[in-house]
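Contributing new complexes? Match this layout with zinc ion.
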Amino acid sequence: MQYSFDNSKKVPVAVVHCLDYRFVEQTNEFVRKELNLKGRYTPYTFPGGPRVYTDGMTRNVFLHALREISVSHHKITRAVFIAHRDCGAWGGSAAFSSLEEERAAQENDMRAAKKTLNREFPDVEVDLYYLEIVSMTGDEGRVEFQPVK
Ligand SMILES: [Zn+2]
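Output block (do not edit by hand):
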């Protein structure tokens, strides 16, 4: 089987999201269809996604990768951070006393990560999204990507 690809060097966006297998395909579809990027982005898929920019153990390593590849080489103008409900990097939903507390903690961490990027790369706009589980029936769920202010 053969697959087509785009050899253009223009990759104006970096998308940072978690590697949680439950949500990778939905995230790719969201980025292609709703953000309309259709392959014109670099996916950075880490445990916890944007949380790597707030953790002292990982911040500098992942900032270095972003600087060397996306900022210096691809000349990105935008980064998209996506966090998700029940993310193991935050201990999952079970680590919080309520869904509201979980989401507030994750959104605060994403805002902190955005501040770090704004300081390091002032020309890169950062957009935040939260993958919310909007319904569950047994093991089948539905999710939606909600913008975070
Ligand atoms: Zn996760």
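Reviewers usually confirm one structural detail per submission. For this one: The mean pLDDT is 95.
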